[in-house]
Amino acid sequence: MPTRILALVGSLRAGSHNRQLAEAAVHHAPPGIEITIFEGLADLPFYNEDVDDGTEHAVEALRAAAHVADALVLFSPEYNGTMPALLKNAIDWLSRPFGAGAIAGKPLAVVGATHGSYGGVWAHDDVRKSAGIAGAVVLKDVQLSVPASHTRFAEIHPSEDGEVTARLAEIFAGLREAAEHRRLR
Question: Distance between CA atoms of 126 and 105, rounded to whole angstroms?
Answer without folding.
Answer: 18
